[in-house]
Amino acid sequence: MTSFIKYILKRLLQMIPVLFGALTLVFILTKFFPYNPAIAYLPQSFSEEDLRNMERYLGLDQPIIIQYFIFLGNLFTGNWGRSLQISQGAEVWPLVMQKFPRTMEITILAMIIASFIGIKAGVISAKHRNKPQDTIVRGIALLGVSIPVFWLGMLMQYFLSYRLKQIGSPFFFPTMGFATAWYPVLEPITGFRLIDTLITGNLYYFIDYVQHLFLPVMALAFITIASVTRQTRSSMLEVLEQDYIRTARAKGCKEKDVIHTHALKNALIPTVTIIGLNIGALLGGAVLTETTFNLDGMGQLIVTAINRYDYYVLNACVFLIAIIFVVVNLIMDLLYAYLDPRIRY
Amino acid sequence: MVEQKLIQDFKTEPEKGKKKKKFLNGTLNWIITHIKFLLIPGYISEDLMERQFEYEKTKSQRKFITRFKSVLTLIGLVLLFVIISFAVFAPWLSPYDRYWLVTPQYGRYAPPSPEHLLGTGDQGFDILGRIIWGARTSLTVALPALFIAVAGGCVIGIVAAYYGGALDSILMRFVDIMLAFPGIILILVFITLWGRQLEYFILAYGILGIAGYSRIIRGSVLQAKNLPYIDAAKVAGAGNLRIMFRHILPNAFQPVIVAFTFDIGGIILSLAGLSFLGFSDESLIEWGYDISLSRAEFYDAPWAMLWPGFMIMMTVLAFMLVGDGLRDALDPRLKNL
After folding, report:
1. Are the Cβ atoms of A325 and B181 closer than 8 angstroms?
2. How many CA atoms, within 13 angstroms, populate the side-chain half-sphere of residue B268?
3. Residue A91 pairs with which residues in a beta bridge?
4. Contact yes or no for A234 and B334 at CB 8 A
5. Are A321 and A279 in contact (CB under 8 A)?
6. DSSP H helical segments within A201-263, as ranges?
7. Are B322 and B77 in contact (CB under 8 A)?
8. Does B277 touch chain A (CB under 8 A)?
9. How far is B192 from chain A, CA to nearest CA, in Å?
10. Phi, psi (deg, nearest 5) at residue A73
11. What is the DSSP letter of B102?
């Protein structure tokens, strides 16, 4: 157990260079943005002298190396700066934190759904190798890789909500947004709306959120189902040719047990790696999905921030994303030990 | 068992007279196996060529092309052929001149009609013409960008893997950082800083791709580095550069070819995504931009967003299918994937 904790600590230490690098990269890039951050701290009308004073106060007249350290210092003291353009003068941290759970909600849900469906489909495909089921699963997986997620989202909006409504179906999915517009907004507790409604036991809202989230999550999941399926299929096929599978069959195990107990656990390790690496693609896809479904999450915030040179907001978002990426990969690493008891840390 | 059989096969000469009935098939296979000699007559000196010929003949028993010609790959190749023809012959295939496809006209979002086979989109653009011209833009961005990525990735990957040590760690940490972001965000930042021109899109995708390719190359160079022929080259007195680029690179290049075909699709998708978010060069005819334009009215005119998306899907699918086929053909061990 101590070695386990040691391993986690080691991994956390390894995270640090990557996070620093991410911050440095963003700092350098945003230095080229043609916008003076001092303006955000000043009232609507200001004189030239005010601006100079504010620049001196923020350390913007210093050489760039010192600015970098000021930037890092501010970061660690929790001073993330103020938004320059999006909502002028507002603190960045609450702004980002308001949107962050929304993005995480759809990303994590999509990841979980994609893993379940993808692994199931991969197993089916490997079990019926070169049969019609296999071809169908592989074909759908290939489509999933090649479909643009925003286009898929628009098709879903058109067929599953607009057309369904038009032909008079009693149930159709809502097209846009997180919740029905005229419902009063609930007070956030964790920020994750689904969890919030479950905590307060507000089932009516919960169902509403689920309805709204269904299409975006499905669209987002579909693009990662493909890679999970392909990876599961290939490693399942590899494992199924091993000797211990033959032994298991020879000693009279049911085929179901052979697949699910003997083969699947051994085949899952590469799949878990792929799922971990996919988080980047998912977050990128979340930017597009949020725009398609008008979800007003962090993806949209990033796009606005880049478009309007709001670089404190951008810094915060990028830092969060780098953290998510590293943490997800850490979790995936720890999952290895569960899947394969031979791996010990 | 297997070895015995192999030796037997080796010893018994194949009987020549009996297989004449499949004459056509035989000729076809002969052309396939010998095509490299037919296309490049006398590409090395005569006596060398004789030996090379024998060597290649045994090597061709791996039957690259036999493995390559599965049904799915053929579908992919046909799709690819259609799309590349769209890109190359756009002015001749398109029903309207480029001028009419970028200048606003009457009749926005008209349904399909004899004049406009797939209907019209925003500002009365003919959709059929626009999707044909769009192929050109997508491929013009994706191909040069990948050449930049492969070239840069090769250099960085080989240097990192060959020298190892601190240089390797530094370069790979840098690659880690690049890969820790969703690529689309970095591209957005680059494009915002530089401007929304075609060249900058190519450059941005190229730079981003370098990270991924150097990782791939590094992996396969690390495998190739410790093989005996590298030691042989060292003993023969070859310099570092020569060993890296003449001896290691050709043997470590195979994974790149497969990644290349997959990444073209990735870039086309990502480019469409950028245009959809509103970061595009609006003077170009681009599929993603068409979708983003038609988004305003897509409940009333679904055809305007349907066809460009369909083209994106088909293009990426074509590259994926060909990539799958290539991987099966190049690396028989991965046949199952």
Report:
1. yes
2. 33
3. A82
4. yes
5. no
6. 203-240, 243-250, 255-257
7. yes
8. yes
9. 7
10. -60, -45
11. H
Average pLDDT rounded to a whole number, residues B266-284: 87
A3 to chain B, minimum CA–CA distance in Å? 25
DSSP B63-100: -HHHHH--HHHHHHHHHHHHHHHHHHTHHHHSSS-HHH
Flag if B337 and A234 touch (Cβ within 8 Å).
yes
Distance, CA of B136 to chain centre: 15
The answer to whether residue A130 neighbours chain B at the CB level (below 8 Å) is no
Structure tokens at B207: 């730079």
- Whole-number Cα distances in Å, B74 to A139, B35, B77: 15, 19, 5
Cβ neighbours of A280 in B, within 8 Å: 179-183
Q: Which of A336, A293, A243 is nearest to A110 (CA)?
A: A293
- The mean per-residue pLDDT over the stretch B57-65 comes to 58
Q: Name the band, by pLDDT with cuts 50, 70 and 90, for residue B335.
A: very low
A232-263 pLDDT, tens digit each: 888 888 888 888 888 888 988 888 888 888 88
The interface pTM score, or ipTM, of the predicted complex is 0.84
Query: Scanning the structure block, which residue is given the tokens 């036999």?
Result: B66
**pLDDT of A115-139, one tens digit each?**
999 999 999 988 888 788 888 888 8
Mean pLDDT for all residues in chain A: 82
The partner residue sitting opposite B298, judged by closest CB among A147, A158, A309, is: A158
pTM: 0.81
Top-confidence residue, A26 or B88 = B88
